[in-house]
Write a structure and sequence with these properties.
By secondary structure, the protein is of the alpha/beta class. Helices cover 28% and strands 24% of the residues. The chain has a six-stranded mixed sheet with strand order 1-14-2-3-4-5. Strands 6-7-8-9-13-12 form a six-stranded mixed sheet. Strands 10-11 form a two-stranded antiparallel sheet.
């Protein structure tokens, strides 16, 4: 399944980019051209004192053969400059081997030194060694939530499920102990899980990654290939039932190591009380 996805992405993207004359740009420029996305999210029930609370989201670092420590450090530096109230990371820290986890965690460690940095795991972390990846992040000072939650401000909780693709997600367990009146932000690597989360009625905002936005988005056609559980909601902000969903395009990438019309991103989300 994974090999098929890579093959399809590689062949289709290569043909499309060659036709556009953009292979050099897509391989050498855009993968390193970080975008800073700013998004306001109105959350009904958000305590008035938290109006303007900011969250920086990083996702899909994919430290490995195609993504260096320096690439991740650049994203971390951009995130730190935002001086947000909270940092969250939504999975896929490595590609191919958990041996890359310590170097990824070392690049992420300044986030923990600056304040709370909460993380969930993704499918690539489980495909290598989830325990090793989680351990490296914890050693670097990050908090890894696996079907767990914590209060980050009075009345505001962040919960996280373990990976959905590998069937480790347990939303009910993640929300144990969270007051029914709380405003809840959920970290879930795979965005299409949002339909199940929204149906629970417990979560105000889900933050995800996984899709990379498709990595290659052709004009008028959109993403060439999207992964399992990242096809319905590929990138950006969506309304899913009574819940908001935001999907970060990721910092890193997977083979083939190209991006076109789909820059890597660091996201600043500002929580707002809805206008009355």
């Amino acid at each position: 399944r994974r090999r098929f996805l890579k093959l399809m992405l590689g062949s289709t993207a290569t043909v499309g980019l060659s036709a556009l004359g953009g292979t050099g740009y897509a391989a050498l420029v855009e993968p390193h051209w970080l975008a800073l996305e700013r998004v306001d999210v109105p959350l009904p029930g958000l305590p008035a004192g938290l109006d303007g609370f900011t969250i920086v989201q990083l996702s899909d670092l994919h430290r490995g053969p195609e993504v260096t420590q320096e690439n991740i450090a650049q994203a971390v530096e951009l995130a730190l400059r935002q001086e947000a109230d909270l940092v969250v990371l939504t999975g896929d820290y490595v590609t191919g081997s958990a041996e890359y986890a310590p170097s990824c965690a070392a690049s992420l460690s300044p986030l923990a030194a600056s304040g709370d940095a909460l993380a969930c795991l993704g499918n690539h972390d489980h495909w290598t060694d989830a325990e090793a990846v989680a351990g490296a992040l914890i050693d670097a000072g990050l908090t890894v939530l696996r079907n767990a939650a914590r209060e980050v401000a009075d009345g505001l909780w962040v919960a996280a499920v373990d990976d959905v693709w590998e069937r480790y997600a347990d939303l009910e367990k993640a929300l144990e102990g969270v007051p029914a009146s709380a405003t809840v932000v959920l970290l879930a690597h795979e965005p299409d899980y949002a339909d199940e989360v929204a149906a629970s009625g417990r979560v105000s905002l889900q933050l995800s990654g996984h899709s990379h936005g498709g990595q290659v988005r052709l004009p008028f056609a959109g993403p060439v290939v999207l992964p399992y559980l990242g096809r319905k909601y590929p990138a950006g902000l969506y309304r899913v039932g009574g819940m908001w969903l935001y999907i970060n395009r990721g910092v890193g990438l997977v083979s083939p190591a190209v991006r076109f019309n789909c820059r890597p991103e660091v996201t600043v989300l500002r929580l707002r009380c809805p206008a009355t």
